[in-house]
Amino acid sequence: MKNNNKNNIDFATVLGSAVHDMKNSLCLLLQSIENLTQTITVENQLVKEHLASAHYEASRLNTGLVQLLSLYRAGLNSLPLNIDQHYIEDVIDEVLASNEGYLQHKNMSLKVSQSEELNWYLDSDLICILLNDMLINAMRYSQKQILLSVYSEDNYLVFRLEDDGPGYPPTMLEAVDMSMQHYDIGHGRTGLGLYFARLIAEAHTNGEKQGSISLQNGGALNGSVFTLKLP
C-alpha cells in the first residue's frame, strides 16, 4: 500500500508553531495590561491590584511557553546558545522593567546589589528568561522583600536571588538535580521551570567549567535562596 506523506502530520512542528503564536499573543496582552495600568488613577487601588495579578499570571504563562518552545527547538538534548559579551547591568534592567508594575502594586521591595561595570559572555535572552522566571517565583511566595545580588567570584558570574517567604519545600530542594523524567509537574514549585533553569545554566561553559544552579533556605531574608553561577 502506498503511503501518502502529505496526510502525515508532524505534531511536534505544529505544537512548536502554536506555542510560538501563543507567546506572541501573550506579549501583546502583557503590553496592553501595562498600558492600561498607567491610565488607572491612584484611587482605584483595587483595580490596580487586579491588573497586577493579571500581569503576573500572563508573565508566568509567557515564561512557560518560552520554555516549551526552547525545549522543542533543543530536542531535549542540547540548548542552542547565542553567546556574546554583555553588560550585566543591562540584563538586570531588562528583567526589572518586566516586573516593575507588579512590584509597585503589591508594595514589594526589591533591592538590587551589583558590581559596577560588570560584563560577561553569555546568552542574554536565555539568562533574562531564567532570571525573570525565578523573580516571578520569588514575587509569588515572598511577603514584602526580595534581594538580588550580582557579583563575580572565583571566575564565575553569580546571581543570588533571596526572598522573605516560607522557603523552598523539601521536595524542591531534592528536585534540583533530577532528570526531566522524574519531575512531578503537578506539585507547586517543582517542574519545568527548575529543569529549564538548570538546562540554561549547564549550557554555559568555559573550558572545563560549567554553569550551575542551586537552591537553599535561609540567607539574609530567611526565605528562599536561588543561586545561578556562570563560568
The SSE order reads: HHEHEEHEEHHEEEE
* Low-pLDDT residue intervals, each spanning 5 or more residues: 180-190
What's the shape?
A: globular
What percentage of residues falls in helices of 4 or more residues? 40-55%
Strand content: 15-25%
How many strand segments? 9
Give the overall average pLDDT. 79
CATH architecture: 2-Layer Sandwich
SS summary, helix count: 6
CATH domain class name: Alpha Beta
How are strands sequenced across the largest beta sheet? Answer: 2-4-5-9-8
Examine the coordinates and then state which fold CATH places here, giving the name of the CATH topology.
Heat Shock Protein 90
- Report the radius of gyration as a whole number of Å: 19 Å
CATH homologous superfamily classification: Histidine kinase-like ATPase, C-terminal domain
For the biggest sheet, the summary is: 5 strands, mixed
Give the N-terminus to C-terminus distance in angstroms. Answer: 56 Å
Which structural class do you get from the secondary structure elements?
alpha+beta
Q: State the domain count.
A: 1
Can you give a write-up of this model?
The chain is an alpha+beta fold. It has one domain: Heat Shock Protein 90. Helix content is 49%, strand content 22%. It has helices spanning 11-39, 45-74, 88-105, 124-141, 170-175, 192-203; strands at 84-87, 109-114, 119-122, 145-153, 156-163, 205-206, 209-210, 212-218, 223-230. The strands form 3 sheets. It has a 5-stranded mixed β-sheet, with helices on one face. The chain has a two-stranded antiparallel sheet with strand order 1-3. Helix 1 runs antiparallel to helix 2 (45-74) and helix 2 packs across helix 4.
